[in-house]
Amino acid sequence: MVTSLLLLAILGSTAGIRTEKVGVLLMHGFWQAFDTQHHLDFKDFVEGKTGVKVHLIDAFNDLAAPPTESSLTPMWIQVPAILEQVKNISAQYDKIIAVGFSQGGVIWRAMIESWDNHNVDTFISLASPQHGISDIPVKYLEPLPKHSIPSTLSYSYKLGISSGIKEVLKSLFYLPRVQNVFAPSNYFLEPKLRHLYLQTAFFPRLNNEVGSAEEKQRQKNNFQSLRKLLLIGGPDDGTVIPWQSQIFGFRTADKKIVPMEETQFYKDDLFGLKTLDEKGAITTCIKGGLRHSDFPNSSEVLNDCVLPAIQDVISN
Question: CB neighbours of 210 closer than 8 A, spacing ≥ 6?
Fold first, then answer.
């Protein structure tokens, strides 16, 4: 009798600290909050279909927050701050599914690369500019303070200026005064301005184009330790330019679109993309007819792309 009671006491004391098997962590995009309706719809769908808990990461929301706490905040500030929150949540689980929508997908890749011994099993990149953006939609520039450089660019774009002048204006995105206040400029990649791009603080380092050999290998090891990478996007997105960046494609300086396999990221296996592909870890899910904001709660995306990926994690 005493033995039985002792056993029950031991089991009872450990039951509260047992890890759950799988959790989903969703990072929102630029100009959004964690609890926007399409993220809530995503959460309801996944939890209802799979029983897996979805955590909506509450950090650096929309544009209304103070400058140092909004989605405008530079990525090199956002990433380490969000990672601390993510580590606390992920400690509850044996393995997690990382979901990043739009800018949130770039943030998630940066967190994975900088997180040693992470427990991210699968990374779902949802309409995210993984190869960067070569243009920034005017709608993202319009809400910014008047007379700021991004606001000036918005006005110039509307005027339909020549492509030559537009390229000069694009170079302004690489100025520190823009890089320090406008997060999308941190993953802005104009092939004709590569010399300026390589001087910036975030994207070249994320892509292992700069940095020490030791740091490059560390980031590569962390990224290629993923079991699965799901890239979701579509040609009618209208926000990520070019849309092929969502599946790690991009355009060259002469404006030719090249697939993932023909990019330097892949050919040189800079951060493990080729390694993941060669072990069969990369899947793409391309859906037409969807605008950028449609992706998180599109029934087609959820049923055809997201649900199978989550079920795969549950079964492994």
Answer: 198, 204
